[in-house]
Each structure stands twice: as C-alpha cells, then as structure tokens.
Amino acid sequence: MPNPAPAPDKREQNSRFPALDEGLVIALFWVLALVVFVQFFTRYVLNDSVGWTEELARYLLVIVTFAGACIAVRRNSHISVEFFYRYLPASAARGLSSVVDLLRVGLLAVLTGLSVELAGNTRQMMTSIELPKSVLYGFVAGCFALMTVYSAIVAWRHLVSRKADVAPDVPTGLWE
Q: Which of 49, 84, 93, 144 is the 20 to 30 A CA-CA neighbour of 163?
C-alpha cells in the first residue's frame, strides 16, 4: 500500500511573502557592497576617488539597516534581556512579555510619526545625488511603520498563544 503524500507545510506556504523582503535586503546589501568596492577601487587603485560613492554608501547602509530591522521585528529576533524570563513563573513571564510587546508597538508607532514629520519638514537635497533627503527619511518612516505592523502581529500572536516568546531557547518559568 503506497504511503500517502505528506501534508504540505503551512509555514512553507506562508514563507513566500517574507522571502520578498529578505530578498530585497540581500539585493540592497549587494548594491552597497558594489558601491563600496567602486569607492575602494577608485580611491586606492586609481588614486582618483569618485565623489558620489561615499554618500551613496552611507545612505544605502541606512536603508539596509532599517529594512533589516523590519525583518528582525517580523521574526521577533531582536536582542533582548532574557534574564527575567528565565526566573519568573510562566504566568509572570507572559505578563511581562505582554507589557514589553505593548511598549514596543507604542515606541515604534511614535518613531513612525516622528519620522513622517521629519520627512515632511526636510527640504535639503543630498550633496552629490539629485534627490531630496526627505526620500531617505520617508523610507525610514515606512520601515518604522512596517515594524509597527509586524510588532503588533507578534504581540497578537503572543496574546493568542499565551506564550512568552522571548527566544526559542529560553525556557520560562523554571518552577512550573
């Protein structure tokens, strides 16, 4: 009797969309690496530096950092202090996790608002690239908004599952 086909993994089906943001960050990282290589090559090999590479590398680093932070919030993999979760009872750890989740959502929402305000008030142009700096600040605001949404989703998952998901390897409530 043939074995039935294994059921498709739901995590595998849901991972297509997140792979999009990870792919974007990887592509942006390689663009950053290429720009830094051009900067290095023209400065130290040709002894005639190209001016726009330094500014573009700086802005690409900001973009990669904030886009990567979105992925870390979605995965709930930012660094955290896990000490208290280890030694609190499970119910107290869940309560602390809920408070931390709410504070994180609130902080990211405030940072989104401040970034939107900064982008709206900035009229300065980039030095060597013909773009306003408000484009960069708008991207940062968009990343903060996405982090707020991802953080709210993580908080909801914690609330529904009643789990203090600090880190996969941190057992909560050693006395339970």
A: 144
